[in-house]
Design a protein that fits this description.
Blueprint lengths: L1 E7 L2 E8 L4 E4 L2 H20 L6 H51 L9 H13 L5 H18 L10 H12 L12 H19 L14 H5 L8 H7 L2 H5 L4 H13 L3 H5 L6 E4 L2 E6 L15 E4 L2 H5 L2 H9 L23 H13 L21
Antiparallel strand pairs: 1-2, 2-3, 4-5, 5-6
Length: 381
């Protein structure tokens, strides 16, 4: 409701005006005229006051703002695409200039061989090695990425230290056009190492290695981020009540063997009954990769480790006798014969259980606190 008062000739005059309720009152004719002017002014003010936008108007405004945002995004992507095309053209011209200069300087020199040929030879060599299948696939994917960057027709002469630097820079930067994310320095070193291996193991003296000395963070790459479990954490993990209730011998023994021998779960799960035998009067575990189906991460995996006395106390020797008594068992029977083999070997199931156990206890930290020899501090004695 709107009210107005006026003072005229020192005499107080009144009128009442409520447009919403339809009330209009005046004491005399003069007040009536003033009241009508006030009503006209209020109506005019209300007509000029902007009304709240409707839902349709809000939706249209939001749609307009989205179109503007998309337009700006498209312009940015277009600019990035133009930049990428210019970069590719620059690399192409650089390769052509290098090839032309070398041809002019050495007119009788035969054409440089394609890098692709030697990359294929390297992958053939890796395919016949004892590396994990997943590692082999990773090496192949890395070389394919490098080959896409330098081009299928890139020769050994084309791949220079300058090109390797460009490749490393390209890996580090994200590409929104292809949703490719930039990688870490550690991963860049992995790519660099694979390319370097092609030169070291296949190309050898046919061309200089453009990767030599070009690792991004070699010292940091060699340093493990995994941390050993604390004594308190080990007590909580290997709680006797929980551990004795386990039904799967692999879930029970694999973490204990990793704890006491410092071995990888994959190496433990591929052990055969014949790998645990006496050496010089001492019961030992023989880790190796020379049986078909076995694999090793490094040469250091092939070793002999004495059996820890605690393994007999927790029933591991008695368990081995039970497996040997199974029908059809032999020296090449797996210690945990029911485990299935996957890309990384036989350790998937026990590793998953141990990870679940760590998560339940709120101890698990990805790549830091895990079932791994570097993460479990061996017990001596």
């Amino acid at each position: 409701m709107s009210r107005a008062k006026t003072i005229l000739d020192d005499t107080l005059k009144h009128f009442e005006l409520d447009l919403e309720r339809g009330i209009m009152k005046a004491t005399d004719e003069a007040d009536y005229e003033r009241m009508m002017k006030a009503a006209e002014l209020l109506q005019k003010t209300r007509a000029e006051k902007p009304s709240a936008p409707t839902k349709q108007q809000q939706a249209e405004q939001e749609a307009f703002e989205r179109r503007i945002a998309k337009f700006d995004q498209d312009r940015e992507l277009e600019a990035r695409e133009q930049e990428r095309i210019k970069h590719q053209e620059f690399l192409k011209l650089e390769q052509e200039n290098i090839a032309l200069r070398k041809k002019l300087n050495n007119p009788d020199k035969p054409p440089s061989p394609l890098f692709r040929k030697y990359a294929d030879d390297y992958l053939t060599f890796v395919g016949g090695s004892t590396l994990y299948p997943r590692t082999k696939k990773r090496y192949a994917a890395m070389l394919q990425t490098f080959q896409s960057f330098v081009g299928k027709k890139a020769t050994l002469d084309d791949i220079t230290p300058s090109m390797m630097l460009n490749f490393q820079t390209w890996l580090a930067k994200a590409d929104p056009l292809t949703d490719r994310k930039g990688v870490t320095n550690r991963t860049i070193d992995e790519y660099t190492g694979v390319v370097s291996n092609v030169y070291k193991m296949v190309i050898k003296k046919l061309a200089d290695n453009p990767v030599e000395g070009r690792l991004v963070k070699k010292k940091q790459r060699m340093k493990s981020v995994r941390k050993p479990f604390t004594p308190d954490e080990l007590v909580r993990i290997f709680d006797p009540i929980v551990w004795n209730a386990l039904r799967d011998p692999a879930d029970f023994f694999v973490p204990i063997l990793a704890l006491l021998t410092g071995s990888r779960p994959a190496s433990i799960c591929q052990l055969r009954l014949g790998d645990i035998r006496m050496e010089g009067g001492i019961l030992c575990i023989h880790y190796h990769d020379y049986i078909e189906g076995n694999s090793s991460k490094t040469e250091a995996t092939n070793r002999i480790a004495p059996m820890h006395p605690l393994l007999e106390d927790v029933g591991f020797i008695r368990y081995l006798h039970d497996v040997k008594a199974l029908k059809g068992s032999s020296a090449v029977t797996l210690v945990f014969p029911w485990l299935n083999k996957y890309e990384q070997g036989y350790a998937d199931a026990p590793s998953q259980y141990f990870t679940k156990r760590l998560k339940t206890l709120l101890i698990y930290v990805k790549n830091v606190k895990v079932l791994y020899p570097c993460a479990i501090q061996p017990i001596s004695g």
